[in-house]
């Protein structure tokens, strides 16, 4: 643990935590790409349901949503918190966050998920360390956009129980256009290989149906880009394994700035989604989940609300 703290305090002076390598100090006023300073940056802690069956379990997961992001996806479904940092922190300090998590875990939920943690890894590690010190036995889920640095992920070995990364693009032109990350494919592939080195393809599910160890890779199909999705699946099968668990998502809707982009201002069609599902089968992926084509209507979080995922 001391080693982790030492490495991360260096990162806070000249941040190279993620592939952006800003080399800026993480303090108020620094123009960091991810908008993060040195604060904890937790936007909300809440129970989240409706995720993949082993993430959702029977009671949902306790998710910790960080503000800011190291990608700028124009269709971001969490855009209220990914592109805005509230002036005032909602939680006083790490102890307050830990207390909120513990209160949720008392309901019997055994998993804590960290959403968009890449640029807040030191803060995430502090939360985990404090929880463990206080006797917490929950599992920890690292739910990132896949744009992670291999060297940083290596420092998380043994600390994270389940990796839940996105794998968004095989096409770097798309990655540049929609997420401002022209090196996304190589970076995300490197990150996935490191996660695989740590966990392999085995996904261990506990007696209550919750993931206890392993990797689940998420891929969101975006409208008009079936080929990108097919190439993502092909690359994972060829370079990592077709035994990985894949969550193939149809829940795209034109969130954030996507309404202004022709082609992205619609949901995906059934024909598009079925073409990707067909390729997933052809490549021999047998582990994972798909969604109903109408799922786009169910995932519209509102981070202005105390319970962002509660449907009215
Ligand atoms: S975590 Fe943020 S400040 Fe650090 S390198 Fe990445 S984008 Fe830059």
Give an overview in words.
The chain has 312 residues and is an alpha/beta fold. It has one domain: Aldolase class I (TIM Barrel). Helices cover 32% and strands 14% of the residues. It is built from ten helices and nine strands. Strands 1, 2, 3, 4, 5, 6, 7, 8 and 9 form a nine-stranded mixed β-sheet that branches. Helix 6 links the parallel strand 4 and strand 5. Helix 1 runs antiparallel to helix 5, helix 4 crosses helix 5 and helix 9 packs parallel to helix 10. The radius of gyration is 18 Å and the shape is globular. The chain starts with a helix and ends in a 22-residue tail after the last strand. Iron/sulfur cluster binds next to loops.
Helices and strands in order:
Blueprint: H1 2-13, E1 42-48, H2 53-56, E2 61-66, H3 79-82, H4 94-105, E3 111-115, H5 121-133, E4 139-143, H6 150-154, E5 162-163, H7 172-179, H8 184-199, E6 204-205, E7 211-220, H9 226-239, E8 245-249, H10 270-282, E9 288-290
Parallel strand pairs: 2-3, 3-4, 4-5, 5-7, 7-8, 8-9
Antiparallel strand pairs: 1-2, 6-7
Helix pairs in contact: 1-5, 4-5, 9-10
The structure holds iron/sulfur cluster (SF4).
């Amino acid at each position: 643990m001391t080693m982790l703290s030492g490495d991360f305090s260096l990162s806070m002076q000249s941040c190279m935590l993620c592939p952006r390598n800003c080399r800026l100090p993480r303090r108020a006023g620094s123009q960091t790409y991810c908008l993060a300073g040195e604060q904890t940056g937790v936007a909300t802690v809440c129970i989240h349901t409706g995720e993949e069956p082993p993430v959702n379990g029977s009671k949902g997961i306790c998710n910790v949503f960080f503000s800011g992001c190291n990608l700028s996806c124009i269709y971001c479904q969490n855009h209220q918190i990914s592109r805005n940092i509230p002036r005032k922190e909602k939680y006083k300090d790490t102890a307050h966050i830990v207390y909120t998590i513990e209160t949720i875990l008392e309901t019997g939920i055994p998993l804590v998920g960290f959403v968009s943690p890449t640029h807040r890894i030191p803060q995430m590690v502090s939360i985990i360390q404090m929880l463990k010190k206080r006797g917490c036995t929950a599992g920890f889920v690292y739910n990132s956009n896949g744009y992670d640095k291999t060297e940083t992920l290596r420092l998380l070995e043994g600390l994270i129980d389940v990796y839940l990364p996105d794998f968004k693009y095989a096409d770097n032109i798309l990655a540049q256009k929609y997420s401002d990350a022209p090196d996304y494919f190589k970076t995300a592939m490197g990150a996935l290989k490191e996660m695989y080195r740590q966990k392999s393809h085995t996904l261990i599910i506990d007696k209550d149906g919750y993931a206890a160890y392993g990797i689940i890779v998420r891929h969101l199909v975006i409208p008009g880009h079936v080929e990108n999705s097919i190439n993502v699946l092909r690359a994972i099968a060829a370079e990592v394994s077709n035994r990985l668990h894949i969550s193939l998502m149809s829940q795209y809707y034109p969130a954030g700035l996507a309404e202004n982009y022709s082609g992205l201002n619609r949901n995906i069609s059934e024909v598009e989604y079925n073409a990707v599902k067909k390729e997933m089968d052809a490549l021999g992926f047998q582990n994972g989940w798909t969604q109903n084509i109408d799922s786009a209507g169910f995932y519209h979080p509102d981070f202005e609300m105390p319970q962002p995922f509660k449907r009215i």
